[in-house]
Amino acid sequence: MKPEEEQLVAGCRNHNQKACKRLYDMFAPSMMAVCMRYMGNRAEAQDVMQDGFIKVFNNIGKLRTSAVLSAWIRRIMVNTAIDTIRKKADLVSVEAVEGEKNLGVAADAFDNIGVEAIMAALAVLPDTQRVIFNLCEIEGYSDAEVAATLGMKEPSIRSARCRARQALQKILAKNE
Amino acid sequence: MTLKDRFENYEMESDAKVWEGVSRSIRQRRLLRNGFYTLGATAVVAASVALFVSRPAADTEAVVTAQLPEAAGPAAVGIADNTISAAAAVDNRISRTDRNEEQVAPSLPSGSVSDQPVAVVDAKLAEEVAVDAAAPVVAAPIEETAVATDRSERAKVGNSTNTSTATATSANEDVVTPKVSALNKDFVDFKSFLPTAISPDNGTNVGVFKVDSRVMDYIQFDNYKMYVYNRGGRMVYHTTSYTEGWNGVFNGVKQPKGNYVYVIEYRDASTGEVKRVQGTFLLVR
Q1: Residue B28 clears pLDDT 50, i.e. is over it
Q2: What domains does chain A contain, in order, with CATH numbers?
Q3: Domains in chain B: how many in total?
Q4: What is the pLDDT of residue A93?
Q5: Does residue B69 register a pLDDT over 50?
Q6: Quick check: B94 and B48 in contact, CB under 8 A?
C-alpha cells in the first residue's frame, strides 16, 4: 500500500468520516463501473456498491499493509455482486451440450467495439452468462478459479462463457 | 489492449444517496463501539471493586485501579482500547481466581496497560480485542440491553471475514442499514404467467393449465413445449402450442385431484437460449 493510502486506511479504521469520504471518492467511480458490469442496471449496481462499501469500511481493520487496496476493494465489490445475483435466482448451471462446438468467436472479436457498447450489450445478457463473462474475460480468472468461486463445474463455465461470447456478438452485430 | 485493460480505467458516476447510506452505516458503527467502551469502563470499575473485596493483592490492585482515572477521563479511542484489554484480562482473572487461589494474573497485558502512552495504540488489536472482549464484558454483572446488538455486531464481523477471500459466501445480515432504493426487477418471470391451481369442474375458476397469452408481451419465445406429469411420473399431457393447455383429462379419464408437475421448454427469441421452467400445480375438483 502506498503511504498516503496507509494514512487514509488508518483514518478509516478510526471511523473518521472525512477519511472514509476521501477513500470513497477515490474508488467510487471505478467501482460503480464494476458494479454496472455485473448487475446490468443502475439501481442494482448502486445497491451493490452501497453494500460493498459498507463491507469495506466494516472490515478495513483487518486489511494488512502489504495488501493492494484497490484489488481488495474490487474483490469485495465482485463478491457482493455475485452474492446479490445468487440471492435473486440460483446461478443456472448450463450443461455442455454434446454437439456444441466452440463456434470460434475470435479472440479479438471485441477489440474494435467501444466500452460503452460492450457494457450495454452485457446488460442484456442473462445473469449467469454476464457474471461468467465478467469473471473470465474481463477480470481474467481461469475457468477453474471461476468454477470454484461460483460453485459450478468447469464444463458449465466453459460453455456458459462460449454462449456469452456468441450472444454478445449477436447483440453487438444487431446494433450496428 | 485486452478487454481487461480497457475496462481497467473505465469509470461511472453514481448518485449521492449511495454515499449517504454508507456514511450512515459508518456513523452507526462508531456509536456502537463507543457504547462498548463506556460499557467496558463501567465493567472495569465493577470488576476492580469486586477484586478489591475478594483479593487485595497489592501489585494487581495498583495496576487495575490505575485504570480508573484513565477510564473516567476523556473517551479517546486510545484510552478506551487500553481499558477494554484490561477489562478482558481482569475478567479472565476473576474466573481463574475462583478456581485457583494461587493465580497471579498472567493474562494482564502489563505492557499495554501501564507503560504505553495513549497515542501509540494498535488500532487493529484494539478492534479485535474489543469485539472479543465485548461478549465476556457484557456477560459480567452488568445487564445491558446492548447484548442483542453486540451479538449482531459479532455475527457481522464473524461473517464478513470471508468477503476478502476467493469463495463467494452468503451475504451479511446487515441489520443496521436499510436499503435506500428498491431492487429494480428488469426481468419478468415466466412462472408468473402460469396458474398455481386449476379447477376444471368449477366453471368460474381457471379450468385449463396453460400459460397466459399475455406472456408474449414480456417474453418473446418460440419452440415452445409443455409437458405435464402426475406424481407417479407418468406424462399425462404434452403440447407444442402455448395457446393450448391441459384440462385434467388423460385418456378420457378425469385425473384425480392432487399435485402435478409441469415442465416447459422454450427458446428465448432475443438471446437464442433454450430455457426450462418447471414447477407444480394443483388439480382441484
Answers
A1: yes
A2: 3-88 (1.10.1740.10), 91-176 (1.10.10.10)
A3: 2
A4: 64
A5: no
A6: no
Contact B86, B40 (CB under 8 A): no
B57, B135: one domain: yes
- In chain A, % helix, strand, coil (3-state, to 5) comes to 70, 0, 30
> Contact A21/B174, CB-based, under 8 Å?
no
Q: How would you classify the pairing of strands B274-283 and B258-268?
A: antiparallel
pLDDT at B255 > cutoff 50: yes
- B73 is a domain residue: yes
Residue A130 confidence (pLDDT) above 50: yes
Check if the beta carbon of residue B281 is closer than 8 Å to that of residue B209: yes
> Tell me, what's the ipTM?
0.81
Residue B221 placed within a domain: yes
Record: contact A83-B170, CB cut-off 8 A: yes
Query: Do B136 and B37 sit in the same domain of this protein?
Result: yes
pLDDT value at residue B53: 81
B150 shares its domain with B225: no
B196 and B144 inside one domain = no
CB atoms closer than 10 angstroms to residue A106: 9
Task: State mean pLDDT over B205-213.
Answer: 85
Cα distance between residue B217 and residue B54, in whole Å: 79
Q: Which of residues 207-266 of B touch A (CB under 8 A)?
A: none
Q: Which domain holds residue B197?
A: 190-283
B173 falls within a domain: no
pLDDT at res. A103? 53
Whether residues B42 and B90 share a domain: the answer is yes
Which positions 103-142 of B are in contact with A (Cβ < 8 Å)? 123-124, 127-128
| Pick from A142, A126, A140: nearest CA to A168 | A126
Query: E strand or H helix at B274, and its extent?
Result: strand B274-283
Tell me A62's DSSP state: G
Reported residue count of chain B is 285
* Single-letter code of the amino acid located at B78: G
Is A93 at the interface with chain B, CB within 8 A? no
Q: Which residue has the cell 418460440?
A: B222
Per-residue pLDDT of A97-121, as tens digits, reads 544 555 556 666 777 788 888 888 8
Instruction: Mark yes or no for CB contact B164/A72 under 8 Å.
Output: yes
Say how far apart CA B175 and CA B116 lie, in whole Å: 36
CATH number reported for the structural domain that contains residue B253 in this entry: 2.60.40
Q: How far apart are CA B93 and CA B101, in angstroms?
A: 11
Q: Could you tell me if residue B22 is inside a domain?
A: yes
HSE-up (13 A, CA, CB side) for residue A93: 8
Q: Are residues B85 and B196 in the same domain?
A: no
Same domain, B48 and B120: yes
Q: Tell me the average pLDDT across B262-284.
A: 88
